[in-house]
Amino acid sequence: MSQAGPILFVSDAERPAFVAALDEARLFPVVDTDWTSAPRAVEEVQPAAVLAAVHAGHEPHVTRLAKTITAQSPYLPFVALDAAGTLPHNALPFSSRGGNPDRLIARLRAALRVRTLHATVLRRLPEVKIALPQGDPARDATVLLIGRGAAYPALSVAFGECVGVVGALSIEAAAKHLNTRDLDGVVLAEGFTARVTDAFLTVLAEDTRFRSLPVVVTAHQLTQSYDLPNLELITGEPPRIAANALPLIRQHAMEAQLSRTLRSIDAGGWLDPRSGLLTVEAFARDFAKAVEQTLARGGGLSVARFAFDPNNPRAQLDAARILSRLMRQMDFGAAQKDGSVIVVFAETDFRTAHMIARRLSAVMRHTSNGKHEMRSDPVVSVDSLSPSDTARSLLARLSADASRAAS
């Protein structure tokens, strides 16, 4: 991958062999600097990525450098090599075990793709009147936690402090979540044999849908390499595992956020970059048109409303992401201002729509937040268009049905 700028390598010692190999392979020109000069070098060199050899005593320098890197635009990847302590929020962990430069090259290429995507979005934003989502991308991230050992509850709480958590006690359950949800990371904890772990990682590496996912293994040594650029072994106490896995998860969440923003730009701003569904205004327009055409031409049209606890706003977002992934191409929906999500099923009768909505709500129930012990249990109401309906009357009846169901 080409990039506008070199790789900045920060260290107070000589380059490790695996870093020197980057320069020798002419894939990434490498510029050296020491820790004292690193923040100034970032601003002067304008690198495409920063690598830093982190040793004991470097913590104040790491914090200062991370702050400088955060201020750069577009996204500037920061990879911390062999850090023993807790990393800053934007420092991607990397263990140089084995000294294999191929792992580092894969990690850099994955990060540089996010940088390129960010640059593309910034370039195209003036085309439509939409705003780039603000705030920490990790707040909207969802992580799949797989495990059944003693550390599982503590890991669930540690990750739940900052991201949504989908739990799985078996590899089979994990596979279902991987196929039905948009995930920003996988944490494979204890409770599985080395053989099962190897088989699971091999399957992930062979499926292009999951190859860029951050995958954190907490309980097994990795005895072979996998084609997973963001695979990392992180051990220790659950809070440290969560803190050092979070930068990889945040980068993936940012990539997903940017991809949705780009789709919104392509759609003329009618898609919500945060949820992936239509904006409220676009939904109202398309729903009125769909009702009008169905009444004129005949056929079926059904609507489902998924309402959530107003004290758990994360549940609405999670549901919207699930729906944007699983609903049919002919269907459309939007996250509403009252905290619900409404989906329109085109050419669908009431019975079929009810069955689809029940299946979708079953998927939504598996996400919880470890901090608040909240689950995403929606109140679901379904209704179908009748000859005397208008778009407004159908939605009003749907909301009334939801109110009765909630009470």
Give the arrangement of secondary structure elements.
Blueprint: E1 7-10, H1 17-24, E2 30-33, H2 38-45, E3 49-53, H3 59-70, E4 78-81, E5 91-94, H4 101-124, E6 142-146, H5 152-160, E7 164-168, H6 171-180, E8 185-188, H7 194-206, E9 215-217, E10 231-233, H8 238-266, H9 280-297, E11 301-307, H10 313-326, E12 332-335, E13 341-346, H11 350-364, E14 367-369, E15 374-375, E16 379-384, H12 391-406
Helix pairs in contact: 2-3, 4-8, 5-8, 10-11
Separation of the first and last Cα atoms? 57 Å
CATH class of the largest domain, anyone?
Alpha Beta
CATH fold topology of the largest domain: Alpha-Beta Plaits
Q: Total domains, how many?
A: 3
The assembly state of the depicted protein chains is single chain
Q: State the CATH architecture of the largest domain.
A: 2-Layer Sandwich
- Please tally the helical runs, counting DSSP H or I stretches of 4 or more residues: 12
The total of beta strands comes to 16
Helix content range = 40-55%
Strand content: 15-25%
Protein name: GGDEF domain-containing protein
